[in-house]
Design a protein that fits this description.
With about 325 residues, this protein is an alpha+beta fold. Helices cover about 25% and strands about 30% of the residues. Helix 1 packs antiparallel against helix 3. The longest helix is centred in the N-terminal third of the chain and has 36 residues. The radius of gyration is 41 Å and the shape is elongated. Keywords: Membrane, Transmembrane, Transmembrane helix.
Length: about 325
């Protein structure tokens, strides 16, 4: 009998520890969730002066026309320009039937345009542009329009140039091919809390200049200029705002609730009370095993004085005063 009682007592203690661990784990998890939910974000806006910027990208599409390209950067011909222009053949794609058969895509993530170029503007060519791209094509009499779209270089990586986003017929604008066109652009940047960046670009098209010198019935030439409006980039940065007092308050409140729950429903609130899920599971009730003092060891049941001494610890030390 005594062995069974001791076993139930041990199991009860194990259950009490188990319930306590469960509540502690819950407290930790809930605190982490509260911290995550309490992370407020605020944004600041600044204007950062950058040393360099990448040029916009463009898509030039037409029907059965082959183009040749060369680029001039700060007055010098760029030998790497042809490598920055990729041809996308869509002649067998039903999506573009009736629109075009092939597109040339100019795209680079390199910061080609410098706020302080090493080459002085006096040494630039007569075009007086930081970057211009000249294209030429033959059989000019067979074409009256070309389709052009200017887009953000940060929208796609160099490995995603086959994406149909840059070949969308509804985003392409029709232009006369034999013209000189100038596009002025400005970037905006948003820096997220995790450090990633998102770039937006606004551009405006200046009036194109047409000239008979640019085209004949056999061949034609056109020029696209890119000019940065400014190297001052509006930057929006996200910052974390951590309300530490709110989290501490939530932690203390939850700790008090779990403490009350444990001693009222799970572990048992006191030494000899029946309540407590751990006691109800094992059917071990401590009040059945009150240790009697030595002078009452032969009694079958504890006296009221013995019970009071259990619940009222150190009651004999109380002092009473007569008034």
């Amino acid at each position: 009998m005594k062995t069974g009682t001791n076993l139930r007592r041990i199991i009860t203690i194990i259950l009490q520890f188990f319930f306590a661990i469960i509540l502690i784990i819950y407290l930790i998890i809930n605190t982490k969730i509260d911290i995550f939910r309490s992370q407020l974000v605020y944004a600041t806006v600044s204007f950062d002066n950058l040393d360099s910027l990448p040029p916009p990208a463009f898509t030039l599409c037409s029907d059965n026309i082959s183009y040749n390209f060369n680029c001039t950067l700060y007055g010098n011909t760029s030998k790497s320009c042809p490598e920055l222009i990729k041809f996308v053949n869509v002649s067998n794609d039903d999506t573009y039937n009736g629109w075009f058969t092939g597109c040339y895509v100019f795209h680079t993530s390199s910061s080609l345009l410098l706020a302080k170029p090493e080459i002085s503007t006096k040494e630039w060519t007569a075009f007086q542009s930081a970057l211009f791209i000249r294209y030429s094509f033959f059989n000019a009499s067979t074409i009256s329009k070309m389709q052009l779209m200017i887009w953000n270089s940060f929208d796609l990586s160099d490995n995603e140039l086959s994406s149909k986003t840059i070949l969308n017929p509804y985003r392409l604008n029709q232009y006369e091919p034999c013209k000189e066109r100038v596009f002025t652009f400005r970037y905006k940047r948003h820096i997220f809390l995790n450090g990633t960046e998102k770039w937006d670009m606004n551009y405006r098209s200046e009036l194109g200049i047409g000239s008979n010198a640019f085209g004949t019935n056999k061949s034609a030439t056109g020029v696209i200029h890119f000019k940065p409006e400014s190297f001052q980039v509006q930057t929006t940065r996200e910052h974390q705002l951590f309300p530490i007092m709110s989290v501490i308050t939530m932690f203390i409140i939850l700790l008090a609730v779990l403490y009350t729950t444990y001693y009222s429903w799970l572990g048992g609130p006191s030494k000899y009370k029946i309540t407590g899920l751990a006691h109800m599971i094992t059917r071990y009730y401590p009040q059945q095993h009150i240790k009697l003092p030595s002078h009452n060891s032969r009694a079958l049941k504890p006296s009221a004085e013995d019970i009071l001494k259990v619940y009222l610890v150190d009651v004999d030390k109380a002092n009473f005063e007569n008034k």
